[in-house]
C-alpha cells in the first residue's frame, strides 16, 4: 500500500520537518512546490520553461502550469511507492486536479498539523535560519546567534519573523486554507495531528494517523476522494 500523503499546517507548525521525517522513514520522496519548480526549470521541460517565464515577470505560476509540473513529478518511478506533498495543493482547484491525477492510485492521506496561534507566534519569533544551508531552528531565549545543528553555519533571525507580520501571515493562511481543509475534512483518510508536542511525539502521532487512515479507506482507489462506488 503506497503512502500518498498531503502534509498541511500553518507557518511554524513543523510541517516541513515532519514531511522530511516521514518521507525518510518510509523511503518515499518529499515533493515541495519550490523544489519541483526549480527542478522543472533546471531540466528545461516545456512546463518548466513556461513557469520560468512567469516567475521572471514577477508573477505567480498559474494552477494549470503548477498542476502540470506536479503531474510530471508524480509520474516518476520513485513516486510510485508513495510521496509526501508539501505546499501542494494550495487551492480547491488544485485539490480537484490532484484528485484526477490520483485515479488508479492508492488513496490520498491528508494530515493537518494543528497548533494554537500563540504557540506558533512564540516559535516563529524565536526562529533562526542558517545562513549556510537554510535550515530552521529555534533560537535562544535571549535571541543571540547560534550555530546550525546540521552544518555548523551561523543562525540569524529572518527579517519577516516579527510578531505583527507573523500574525498577518497566520490570518492569511487561515483564510486561504479553510476551504481546502473543508474540502478534505469529510474523507475517511483525513486526519488532524497535535503539533504542539516535541518533534518526536508529533512524528509518532503522525505515523499512527497515516496508518489508521489507510486502514479506514473504503476500498480500491478508483475514486481518490475515498467515496464509495455508486
Q: What's the helix count?
A: 8
Which superfamily, in CATH terms, is the homologous superfamily?
P-loop containing nucleotide triphosphate hydrolases
CATH architecture: 3-Layer(aba) Sandwich
Compute the number of structural domains: 1
In terms of topology, how is this protein built?
Blueprint lengths: L2 E6 L6 H12 L3 E3 H11 L2 H11 L6 H12 L7 E5 L5 H10 L6 E7 L2 H9 L1 E4 L5 E3 L16 E2 L6 H23 L4 E5 L4 H17 L15
Parallel strand pairs: 1-3, 1-4, 2-3, 4-8
Antiparallel strand pairs: 5-6, 5-7
Helix pairs in contact: 1-8, 2-3, 2-4, 3-4, 4-5, 6-7
Describe this entry's structure for a reader.
With 230 residues, this protein is α/β, with parallel strands linked by helices. It is built from eight helices and eight strands. The two termini are 23 Å apart. The longest helix is centred in the C-terminal third of the chain and has 23 residues. The strands form two sheets. Strands 2-3-1-4-8 form a five-stranded parallel sheet, sandwiched between helices. A three-stranded antiparallel sheet has the order 6-5-7. Strand 5 and strand 6 form a beta hairpin. The chain has a single domain, classed as Rossmann fold (3-Layer(aba) Sandwich).
Keyword list:
230 residues; alpha/beta; 5-stranded parallel β-sheet; disordered C terminus; 8 strands; 3-stranded antiparallel β-sheet
Q: In summary, what is this structure?
A:
The protein has helices at 15-26, 33-43, 46-56, 63-74, 92-101, 117-125, 163-185, 199-215, and strands at residues 3-8, 30-32, 82-86, 108-114, 127-130, 136-138, 155-156, 190-194. With 230 residues, the protein is α/β, with parallel strands linked by helices.
Amino acid at each position: 500500500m503506497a503512502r500518498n500523503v498531503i502534509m498541511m499546517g500553518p507557518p511554524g507548525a513543523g510541517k516541513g520537518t515532519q514531511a522530511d521525517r516521514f518521507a525518510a522513514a518510509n523511503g518515499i520522496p518529499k515533493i515541495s512546490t519550490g523544489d519541483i519548480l526549480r527542478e522543472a526549470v533546471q531540466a528545461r521541460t516545456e512546463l518548466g520553461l513556461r513557469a520560468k517565464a512567469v516567475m521572471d515577470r514577477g508573477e505567480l505560476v498559474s494552477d494549470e502550469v503548477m498542476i502540470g509540473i506536479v503531474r510530471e513529478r508524480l509520474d516518476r518511478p520513485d513516486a510510485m511507492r508513495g510521496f509526501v506533498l508539501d505546499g501542494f495543493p494550495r487551492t480547491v482547484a488544485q485539490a480537484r486536479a490532484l484528485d484526477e491525477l490520483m485515479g488508479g492510485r492508492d488513496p490520498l492521506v491528508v494530515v493537518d498539523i494543528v497548533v494554537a496561534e500563540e504557540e506558533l507566534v512564540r516559535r516563529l519569533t524565536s526562529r533562526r535560519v542558517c545562513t549556510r544551508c537554510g535550515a530552521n531552528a529555534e533560537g535562544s531565549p535571549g535571541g543571540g546567534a547560534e550555530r546550525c545543528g546540521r552544518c555548523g553555519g551561523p543562525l540569524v533571525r529572518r527579517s519577516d519573523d516579527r510578531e505583527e507580520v507573523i500574525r498577518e501571515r497566520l490570518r492569511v493562511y487561515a483564510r486561504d486554507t479553510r476551504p481546502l481543509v473543508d474540502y478534505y475534512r469529510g474523507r475517511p483518510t483525513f486526519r488532524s495531528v497535535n503539533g504542539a508536542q516535541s518533534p518526536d511525539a508529533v512524528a509518532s502521532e503522525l505515523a499512527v494517523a497515516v496508518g489508521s487512515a489507510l486502514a479506514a479507506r473504503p476500498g480500491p482507489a478508483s475514486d481518490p476522494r475515498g467515496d464509495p462506488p455508486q
